[in-house]
Specification:
single chain; 290 residues; alpha/beta; 8 strands; globular; lyase; DapA-like
Length: 290
């Protein structure tokens, strides 16, 4: 699956003022990313506010992105949850012919122990589909430890990649150091993208990347080429905006960036609310500098 290398972006779902899905803006966003060097698109991830979309809306969003993308970039589909058998069933019943892999977040709220997390992904692996493990303890309440990731990686070849967003960067390095051949790690934290890629990671599944696809994909390519100074020049230019977009939660910050670039309108569905005026102003100032 070396096809999923470089910058994948977790696309937002644009909304109209009446909070219906804004398909015109979604088209613009997909085209903007394809034209500016994004390597693959992640559909219906957390950033897409997928939890607030109805089953019918999810289907419409998926169909629309498949159509607009028109096989130009690899696609990844988010299918996750905290009911293991239900997630397995969904993966089995979804037409994945247009998707390279499924991104599946570790079970949230239930707080399973490491054996429970292992058994969860073992069950998903039994579908035979290509699955990306997604570890994001800040959202799920439980960390998939490096040892558990490596156990899964060694036993199930179709669990071929982890999107790692543990708060401790040493965990990323432990996985990279001990992983079997054929298993990869991408950063799930935009700010860690460069050091993790330089340490042998396969890039990032990014939020800020969809706002600055050209810069972010150039930075990651420079990292692959081991052009460290040039890569850090771009990293340093984007650090402040990267921090700002997460200051009040995701995706309220990235929606400001995309709205300012004229790609989408700045609407979110409850329980999320748009960025405060103060944060909006700060993001605008930082964008002007970039």
């Amino acid at each position: 699956m070396s096809i999923l290398k470089g910058v994948g972006v977790a696309l937002v779902t644009p909304f109209n003022e009446d909070l219906s899905v804004d398909f015109d803006s979604l088209t613009k966003l997909v085209e903007y990313n394809i034209e500016n060097g994004t390597n693959y698109l992640v559909v219906l991830g957390t950033t897409a506010e997928a939890a607030t979309l109805s089953t019918e809306e999810k289907k419409q969003v998926v169909d629309h992105i498949i159509k607009v993308n028109n096989k130009r970039l690899p696609l990844v589909l988010g299918i996750g949850g905290n009911n293991t058998l239900e997630v397995k069933k969904q993966i089995e019943e979804t037409d994945l012919s247009d998707f390279t892999a499924v991104l599946s977040v570790s079970p949230y709220y239930n707080k399973p122990n490491q054996e429970g997390l292992y058994q969860h992904y073992k069950t998903l692996a039994s579908t035979g589909k290509n699955i990306i493990i997604y570890n994001v303890p800040s959202r799920t309440g439980q960390n998939v430890e490096a040892e558990t990731t490596l156990r899964l990686a060694n036993e199930f070849p179709n669990l071929f990649l982890i999107k790692e967003a543990a708060p401790n960067i040493l965990q990323y390095f432990d996985v990279l150091r001990k992983k079997p051949e054929g298993f990869n790690l991408v950063s799930g934290d935009d700010e860690y993208t460069l050091p993790v890629t330089l340490a042998g990671g396969a890039g990032v599944i990014s939020v800020i990347g969809q706002g600055y696809p050209k810069e972010f994909s150039t930075m990651v390519q420079l990292a692959f080429d081991k052009k460290v100074d040039e890569a850090y020049e771009i990293h340093n230019k984007l650090v402040e905006i990267t921090r700002l977009i997460f200051a009040e939660g995701n995706p309220c910050g990235i929606k400001v960036v995309l709205a300012e670039k004229g790609l989408i309108k700045n609407y979110l569905r409850l329980p999320l609310v748009p960025a405060s005026e103060r944060l909006y102003a700060k993001i605008k100032v930082e964008m002007a500098k970039i």
